[in-house]
Structure formats: C-alpha cells, structure tokens
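STRUCTURE:
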C-alpha cells in the first residue's frame, strides 16, 4: 500500500555566547718520492719483490754468497724540474735481510751518470749484516757541491757491491729515495710595533725576525705602503732585527719581505700592520644647524659635527653661550656625531671642542642660532571602554574620549582625529571592518579655556577581530604640528550564526523509499570567531530517539541523514543520533569585508514502512567554538 504524506522538519539553531677537524699544515720543503722505474727493470720486477738483480746472469735471484761482484739495482727518476733549482737533500732507504752471510765486505754504490761512474755511498762489514733498514741522508756531502737537477740528469742509479765469497744470502725487500728541494719562502714574523700603533715621534724602529729551514737568507726589506723603504743584507736567522727610519705625520701600512739564497730566491712576506704618526690636533667641521639659522623643529636641538684626526678622538664637548652643555668620550672619528640639547626659544652661540687620544686639543669656529619653535598640542588623556561586546549580524557604537590642550592656546588646535586598530595591524593601514577604523573629525564636547574634551565615535561591525585594540587620538595645530596619546581596549569573542531556511520540507515520500535529492540548509557566521556546528534531532523532546512523529507511527532518528558534501547517496550520508554530534571539520570562518561567510548542510530522509500521514520533527543545530 502506498502512503502519501507531507514531511516537514523544523530547525532549531542555538548560538553559544561567548599553542670540526682542525688541520695545521707546515710545509718545510717539497719531497719527491721515487720508486724504481720500469726502464731499468727489464724483468718487470715490482716494489717489495724479494729479489735482487744479478748482472752476470740477467736473472732475478737471491744474492748468493758464492757469487762476488757488482749487483745492479734500480735507477730512480727524481723528477723533472728547473735546472737552476738546488736539490737540498736526497734520502735513500733500503730494507735488507741477510741469512748466514759471511763476505769480507759489501757496499752500496751510486751513479749520477747512468752507470758510467760508480761512487761508494756506504761500506759495510759482514759483522753488521742482519735484517735492518739502512737510511742515508745528505748524499750531496760526498760530492763537494750541491747537486742540481741538471747534474744528475733526472736519474740516480743505485747498486750493491760484494767483495769475497761466503755462505748465506742477502734478501732485498724494498728500496726507495726521497728528493727534497727548497721551494718554500722564508718565514717572516713581525715583533713590534703592534698593529694600529700610535706615536708622536717621527723616528720609528720596526722589529722583526726571519727563519728558513733549508736555505740561508739573502736579504730583507722594509715595505711602507707596499714600497721598499730600506734593505738589510746582513741577516741572522732567528734573531731580532730592525729597521729604524724617519716618517712624516700620517697613517702607514708596513711589512717586511725576505728572500732566501736558494737558486730560485724564494720570497717570504710578513703580515701587514698599521702605524700612525700624529703631531697635530683634530680638525672639526660644524654640520648643523647652519650658522645664523633659525631652528623651529622642536625645542630639542640637534648639534651635528664631524671631527677628523690621524688617530682616534678621545672626547668632544658642546659649548653654548660659553658654558659646557654636553660632553662625550664616545665620539666617532671622520664621521658625523650628534649632541641633542633642549633649548627654550631664544638666541644662542655654540661651538665644539675635541681632544684626540694623543692629547692634542682643538676648538671649532663659533656658530650662531635662533630657536623659534611652535609648541605642539598635547593629548593629555584618552579613555575608551575596557571591554567591547559585539552584536550578532549588527554594528555596535563606541567612543574614545580625549582631553586636549596646546601651550600656544586652544585656538591653534585645527583638528582632532582618532584611529582604532587591532594589534595585528598598523595605525596607517586602510580601514576595514575587521581590523581598522578612522574618525577624522572628533567632536569637541566641552572646554574650560585651557583644556578641551573631544569625543571620537566608531561603529564597529560584528566581525571585528577579537583581542586587543588601540585607540590613538592625534591633535594638530594650525602650523601642522601635532601631538598624540593612546589607550587600549578589548573586543570580546562573539559566537553567533543564522540558519536559512528554518524548515526542511522533504515533500511526499512513499514508505520504504528515501529522498532522491538534497534538501539544503545554509549556516551563516554572524560573529567574529570561527565556529563548528553540532547536530541532533527529536520529534517530541530531546533524546526521544525519533526524527519525526507522523499521523500514524513514528520515524526513528536514524532515518534522517546529513552531509557537508552535496549529491551523496542516502546510504553514504551520516544518520542523526540522539546525542549532540559536533562536526569538527565544519570550520566556518567569520565574515570578511569582501564577502559573507556561510556553508551548506545537505539532508535526506528515509521513509520506513508502517507510517502514514503528515510527519514533523525538529533538527537542532548548535553553534560551538571551532
């Protein structure tokens, strides 16, 4: 049986009122490490191989005690370099092991001419043979002169010579050489004067020391502003040395450079330091106020000046009409400095006196000044309501009251204006209903001839942002000079909303069927704070478990469904419950100046079998903080 009925739902809406590795690298020289080269190693023997080369049999084998003679070793490529550069040291390292060896003697030989001539590097007796590392330094001492790259042609040859016969063996594990050249400059250290040293004497002694690990020192020079001033060729390394020179007044950069006596004359330069020779007082330029000028800005007069000196300024003083007015020991050299003094309207003579850190003192020229200031109005007091409660979907009127005076007389007051603004905005921002209000013409309500009382009114919207607000009142005189004062107030939170429509009409439904389209309810934010909604429903009274009461029978609460998404199937929507359920993601923001703030709720109803006639009930929409 079909059932036709009108199903209407009344909506109740309730408004609630109101968180490192540090690396230190000191390079003394360049070390060229050389392993045996393959050009003199026809058998392809590699380093750490346990063989030596037998020149008589051209094979690699143990050095046998039954064999005497010369056993060729390896040649070493000591690198390609400038022929004029000295080799300061060649170090040879051999790692040899002997076993039951007994020969009359053996020796290490070296050749600088590819094996044409051999020289004894070291002689050894058989008594000293055992597993050992043989290290030999300063080969050049055997040749009566320093080697150069040209003299050894880039290669050094090494061989072992054995005299006599015996038993046992010599086993070579490793051989290599290091070649050291001097390509590092001397180290120059400055001793005195310290950097930024100040003196009045024209005769200055510059002290330094110099050292070089591999070479001697050829000469050292004093550099003044990057130019050689004096040179010394008698240098004792590590000792304190000096240049004593005469300089005129001024500031100088100084350093010391030294050359070593290697073939390439390495150059070392010290740090650079500053010295100042000061023999005169500072100069003083008066910047403002200009001579014979009129000061009408305020009675606080700014006296600006610039002292200039080779050394720093110790102190400066301001004199007005012959008396000390201000003193400062914190004065910037070669920069603008300022003294600020309160002066009544009148005529004044002023000058500056400065002393530098060397004790030289100077006085500036004298300037004359007229002070003629229009005194600004004074806003003595500003009063506003301590708390402001807004009206839902409406405006509320408030006033800031101010007491104003002017030392030049109330007749010079031209205008009084007020600005009311939220703490998140600025006084000069444009007006908005949310954050900023301006009253450009406050009304004088009373006067006693000395003080005047003004009233500054504002009409505040319901969506004005809650929190601390500042009321600034500014009075301006006929010379466009102004004075101001402020007070603060608080705008309270307002939770409010409206709902449209106030009825949900589901139309005619057949038993066992549900709504085919959404019924829409619009919720408007009529306050100044973000809100959520909480939903429930009933037919007779809260908690009765019903959505509607019908002519015959009732519809249970779960048959009425809602959603914040349009067009959902009835089964995908959320059923109402007897409990008040908050929609946490509703998040309806307050209105802005540009647009109203609202959101939709979508509804569908299911019609159970066994009921007929007209049905009615209630949906309760409560407004809660978001």
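SEQUENCE:
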């Amino acid at each position: 049986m079909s059932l036709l009925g009108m199903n209407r739902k009344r909506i109740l809406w309730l408004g609630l009122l109101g968180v490192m590795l540090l690396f230190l690298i000191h390079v003394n020289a360049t070390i060229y490490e050389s392993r045996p080269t393959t050009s003199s190693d026809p058998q392809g023997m590699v380093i750490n191989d346990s063989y030596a080369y037998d020149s008589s049999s051209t094979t690699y084998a143990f050095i046998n005690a039954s064999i005497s003679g010369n056993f060729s070793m390896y040649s070493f490529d000591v690198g390609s370099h400038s022929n004029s550069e000295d080799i300061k040291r060649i170090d040879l390292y051999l790692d040899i092991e002997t076993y039951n060896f007994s020969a009359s003697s053996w020796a290490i030989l070296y050749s600088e001419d590819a094996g044409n001539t051999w020289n004894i590097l070291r002689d050894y007796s058989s008594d000293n043979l055992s597993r050992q590392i043989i290290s030999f330094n300063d080969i050049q001492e055997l040749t009566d002169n320093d080697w150069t790259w040209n003299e050894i042609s880039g290669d050094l040859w090494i061989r072992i010579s054995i005299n006599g016969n015996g038993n046992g063996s010599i086993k070579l594990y490793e051989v290599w050489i290091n070649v050291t050249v001097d390509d590092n400059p001397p180290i120059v250290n400055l001793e005195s004067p310290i950097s930024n040293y100040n003196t009045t004497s024209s005769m200055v002694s510059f002290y330094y020391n110099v050292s070089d690990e591999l070479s001697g020192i050829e000469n050292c020079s004093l550099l003044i502003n990057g130019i050689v001033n004096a040179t010394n060729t008698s240098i004792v390394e590590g000792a304190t040395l000096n240049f004593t020179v005469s300089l005129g007044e001024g500031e100088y950069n100084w350093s010391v450079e030294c050359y070593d006596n290697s073939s390439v004359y390495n150059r070392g330069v010290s740090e650079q330091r500053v010295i100042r020779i000061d023999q005169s007082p500072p100069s003083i330029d008066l910047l403002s106020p200009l001579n014979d000028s009129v000061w009408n800005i305020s009675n606080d007069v700014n006296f600006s000046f610039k002292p200039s000196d080779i050394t720093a300024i110790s102190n400066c003083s301001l004199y007005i009409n012959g008396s000390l007015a201000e003193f400062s020991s914190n004065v910037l050299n070669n920069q603008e400095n300022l003294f600020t003094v309160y002066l009544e309207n009148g005529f004044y003579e002023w000058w500056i006196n400065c002393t530098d850190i060397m004790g030289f003192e100077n006085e500036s020229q004298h300037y004359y000044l007229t002070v003629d200031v229009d005194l600004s109005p004074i806003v003595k007091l500003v009063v506003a309501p301590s708390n402001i409660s807004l009206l839902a979907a409406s405006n509320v009127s408030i006033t800031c009251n101010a007491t104003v005076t002017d030392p030049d007389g109330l007749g010079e007051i031209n205008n009084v204006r007020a600005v009311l603004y939220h703490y998140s905005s600025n006084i000069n921002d444009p007006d908005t209903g949310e954050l900023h209000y301006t009253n450009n013409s406050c009304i004088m309500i009373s006067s006693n001839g000395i003080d005047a009382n003004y009233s500054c009114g504002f009409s505040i919207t319901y969506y004005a942002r809650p929190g601390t607000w500042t009321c600034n009142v500014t009075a301006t005189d006929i010379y466009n000079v102004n004075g101001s004062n402020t007070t603060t107030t608080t705008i309270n939170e307002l939770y409010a909303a409206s709902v449209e429509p106030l009825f949900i009409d589901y139309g005619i439904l057949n038993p066992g069927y549900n709504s085919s389209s959404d019924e829409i309810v619009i919720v408007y934010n009529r306050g100044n704070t973000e809100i959520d909604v909480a939903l429930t429903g009933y037919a007779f009274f809260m908690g009765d478990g019903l959505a509607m009461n019908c002519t015959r029978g009732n519809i249970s609460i779960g048959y009425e469904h809602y959603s914040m998404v349009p067009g959902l199937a009835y089964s995908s929507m959320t059923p109402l419950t007897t409990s008040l359920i908050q929609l946490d993601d509703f998040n309806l923001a307050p209105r802005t100046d540009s647009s109203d703030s609202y959101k939709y709720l979508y509804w569908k109803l299911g019609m159970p079998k066994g009921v007929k006639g007209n049905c009615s009930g209630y949906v309760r929409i409560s407004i809660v903080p978001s």
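REMARK: The helical segments are 149-152.
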